[in-house]
Amino acid sequence: EVYFKNLSKQKQKEVMEKNGNNQKLRICVATCNRADYSKLAPIMFGIKAEPQFFELDVVVLGSHLIDDYGNTYRMIEQDDFDIHTRLHTIVRGEDEAAMVESVGLALVKLPDVLNRLKPDIMIVHGDRFDALALATSAALMNIRILHIEGGEVSGTIDDSIRHAITKLSHYHVCCTRSAEQHLIAMCEDHDRILLAGCPSYDKLLSAKNKDYMSIIRMWLGEDVKTRDYIVALQHPVTTDIKHSIKMFELTLDALISFNKRTLVLFPNVDAGSKEMVRVMRKKGIEHHPNFRAVKHVPFDQFIQLVAHAGCMIGNSSCGVREVGAFGTPVINLGTRQTGRETGENVLHVRDADTQDKILHALQLQFGKQYPCSKIYGDGNAVPRILKFLKSIDLKEPLQKKFCFPPVKDNISQDIDHILETQSALAVDLGGTNLRVAIVSMKGEIVKKYTQLNPKTYEDRLELILKMCVEAATEAVNVNCRILGVGISTGGRVNPREGIVLHSTKLIQEWSSVDLRTPISDALHLPVWVDNDGNCAALAERKFGHGKGIENFVTLITGTGIGGGIIHQHELIHGSSFCAAELGHIVVSLDGPECLCGSQGCIEAYASGIALQREAKKLHDEDLLLVEGMSMKKEEVVSAAHLIQAAKLGNIKADSILRTAGTALGLGVVNILHIVNPSLVILSGVLASHYVNAVKDVIHRQALSSVKTVDVVVSNLADPALLGAASLVLDYTTRRIY
């Protein structure tokens, strides 16, 4: 409070000159429970410290006024705030119906209060059902709403309530960059969003130097040492009450077995809390020598307790948000906080269905010390919020405006159009074959056409057009509506212009070729073109193992070696469209010559061409065939013969394959050290032969921080065609281009 008084004195003259008047802003802060007060109190202190700018009215409702939850309104009085109104709004029962009735009771009582106060702005926090009643009342009574902590993502019904409050609110204060982006994606006006950080961090980041041993002893006993106790705080999950009660029971069993002094806080007022309290009493937690069960701990003291704990366990947002400021280990149980941004101090036990899982998590986390995290704030949220409040112009229209993205007009609303399957024409331009397919939105290849790839540019383009026209005509018969054409080709591609800059040696006369224009002109459809490796990555992102994965790499192991990199859900092309030429990572300075002209590339070791080359050498020396193998005189030696020989015990063939797998593995290690993906997908005909070798090299050669990466074999039957289709399906169905 002293800090804010000093701040106001320094800035008073500057702000008054900027505003040009002395009109005070009347602000109503409504607090419903102990958790939201910890976020609102710093803002309230800041408002109170600047009486020349603000008038503060405090309304208290919800579980603050219930004895079973600690009568926490008293801490508001202890902080020297005048409570204007106390509203008893909680209908007891602690089930789903009681929550609905509590919202209704609040809606009945709030209009009279707001009519008397006539605030300019109502400050509402978070995602509780009480807060929804506050926001609904204020919005219907034409009172501007400032919502704290909107845009965040978590589990249970809280997500829906939080986003509903966002839509009712006129101004938004968010804590993280991701939350800000979520608000923008929800069509909120960017000019009315403030990225301030969490207000509680203003207190957290200056709290650790205070005397704390007396607080620890008061709540946990005289014989307790720092880092040698646990804080447990677990709430019911309103969308799955039975499971959350069972999980709480398992948590208590694990804590009893772990045998450490534990401070257990009572759950909040949500549906299911009464059953959780019964579980505590059934297990004798309130009388157990290792446990201290309490209804409420003042926030200042709670900060000290979690800052010096050996671990915090439960499903409270406090664990994944505030506790990171101290680096205290946290075990987050279940789905209640799914989607929250967390620091490395948080260990998630999503499916906490056994006591052993929870006990193992305690053994892993207890007593550790992690780096302090500032994901949710830097300690300067309140000054930013006060400045934001002062900038609000009450003369602006009250009606909210939403920033909707542009949406293309629907060209048809007839029943046939609605019933058609949205599809893409996918073209795979390979070294041997030219393939065209109709691919549905779900990744089903409805129909496929294959022809030998002509040798000359003119013949090749003519055949592409002929096959695309044929497929587009057939699409009508199979009730598919073609949205566009996607083309996958080898070589370097400018996807923005739809031009093949230069291709591989497998496709002759294919440099500086504009594929988009002639095909688009002929079919009257949009056309996308990209490199085959990038297309494989896009296929995995939409239909395969990469679906929902933020960062992953796909490696194609076929005639050549290629790939694609997905970073933050987007494909990386590079400044000259040469990113992800993974086959040309050099793994040996004096290795075999590659088709690119260099030496020691992965492709020179592990591609189908490289294996065929080595197979021919063995065959020429009569060292390839072993018992169980036979070849016709006119049969061409291929990589398949080398693989077959290795399986039948040919030591030299096996050595060649192991060398190829090692080369590929070293390339993957380099990729891990550069882009640090969470997943590596091996695609193509050789993937299953290399996957174990790649995992072995990662285990031996990679840094420990990346050894946990998942390496899997693609389960897509035709990644080239599916990737070409995803070029179309991803872009033509987006609302923002």
UniProtKB/TrEMBL annotation:
<comment type="similarity">
    <text>In the N-terminal section; belongs to the UDP-N-acetylglucosamine 2-epimerase family.</text>
</comment>
<keyword id="KW-0862">Zinc</keyword>
<keyword id="KW-0067">ATP-binding</keyword>
<dbReference type="Pfam" id="PF00480">
    <property type="entry name" value="ROK"/>
</dbReference>
<dbReference type="GO" id="GO:0046872">
    <property type="term" value="F:metal ion binding"/>
</dbReference>
<feature type="domain" description="UDP-N-acetylglucosamine 2-epimerase">
    <location>
        <begin position="53"/>
        <end position="390"/>
    </location>
</feature>
<comment type="similarity">
    <text>In the C-terminal section; belongs to the ROK (NagC/XylR) family.</text>
</comment>
<feature type="binding site">
    <location>
        <position position="601"/>
    </location>
    <ligand>
        <name>Zn(2+)</name>
    </ligand>
</feature>
<keyword id="KW-0479">Metal-binding</keyword>
<feature type="binding site">
    <location>
        <position position="581"/>
    </location>
    <ligand>
        <name>an N-acyl-D-mannosamine</name>
    </ligand>
</feature>
<keyword id="KW-0597">Phosphoprotein</keyword>
<feature type="binding site">
    <location>
        <position position="584"/>
    </location>
    <ligand>
        <name>Zn(2+)</name>
    </ligand>
</feature>
<keyword id="KW-0547">Nucleotide-binding</keyword>
<feature type="binding site">
    <location>
        <position position="504"/>
    </location>
    <ligand>
        <name>an N-acyl-D-mannosamine</name>
    </ligand>
</feature>
<keyword id="KW-0021">Allosteric enzyme</keyword>
<dbReference type="GO" id="GO:0005829">
    <property type="term" value="C:cytosol"/>
</dbReference>
<dbReference type="InterPro" id="IPR020004">
    <property type="entry name" value="UDP-GlcNAc_Epase"/>
</dbReference>
<dbReference type="GO" id="GO:0008761">
    <property type="term" value="F:UDP-N-acetylglucosamine 2-epimerase activity"/>
</dbReference>
<feature type="binding site">
    <location>
        <position position="596"/>
    </location>
    <ligand>
        <name>Zn(2+)</name>
    </ligand>
</feature>
<dbReference type="GO" id="GO:0004553">
    <property type="term" value="F:hydrolase activity, hydrolyzing O-glycosyl compounds"/>
</dbReference>
<keyword id="KW-0418">Kinase</keyword>
<dbReference type="GO" id="GO:0009384">
    <property type="term" value="F:N-acylmannosamine kinase activity"/>
</dbReference>
<keyword id="KW-0378">Hydrolase</keyword>
<feature type="binding site">
    <location>
        <position position="603"/>
    </location>
    <ligand>
        <name>an N-acyl-D-mannosamine</name>
    </ligand>
</feature>
<feature type="binding site">
    <location>
        <position position="492"/>
    </location>
    <ligand>
        <name>an N-acyl-D-mannosamine</name>
    </ligand>
</feature>
<keyword id="KW-0963">Cytoplasm</keyword>
<comment type="pathway">
    <text>Amino-sugar metabolism; N-acetylneuraminate biosynthesis.</text>
</comment>
<comment type="subunit">
    <text>Homodimer. Homotetramer. Homohexamer. The hexameric form exhibits both enzyme activities, whereas the dimeric form only catalyzes the phosphorylation of N-acyl-D-mannosamine.</text>
</comment>
<protein>
    <recommendedName>
        <fullName>Bifunctional UDP-N-acetylglucosamine 2-epimerase/N-acetylmannosamine kinase</fullName>
        <ecNumber>2.7.1.60</ecNumber>
        <ecNumber>3.2.1.183</ecNumber>
    </recommendedName>
</protein>
<feature type="binding site">
    <location>
        <position position="532"/>
    </location>
    <ligand>
        <name>an N-acyl-D-mannosamine</name>
    </ligand>
</feature>
<feature type="binding site">
    <location>
        <position position="584"/>
    </location>
    <ligand>
        <name>an N-acyl-D-mannosamine</name>
    </ligand>
</feature>
<dbReference type="GO" id="GO:0006047">
    <property type="term" value="P:UDP-N-acetylglucosamine metabolic process"/>
</dbReference>
<keyword id="KW-0808">Transferase</keyword>
<dbReference type="InterPro" id="IPR003331">
    <property type="entry name" value="UDP_GlcNAc_Epimerase_2_dom"/>
</dbReference>
<feature type="active site">
    <location>
        <position position="532"/>
    </location>
</feature>
<dbReference type="GO" id="GO:0005524">
    <property type="term" value="F:ATP binding"/>
</dbReference>
<feature type="binding site">
    <location>
        <position position="594"/>
    </location>
    <ligand>
        <name>Zn(2+)</name>
    </ligand>
</feature>
<dbReference type="InterPro" id="IPR000600">
    <property type="entry name" value="ROK"/>
</dbReference>
<keyword id="KW-0511">Multifunctional enzyme</keyword>
<dbReference type="Pfam" id="PF02350">
    <property type="entry name" value="Epimerase_2"/>
</dbReference>
<dbReference type="InterPro" id="IPR043129">
    <property type="entry name" value="ATPase_NBD"/>
</dbReference>
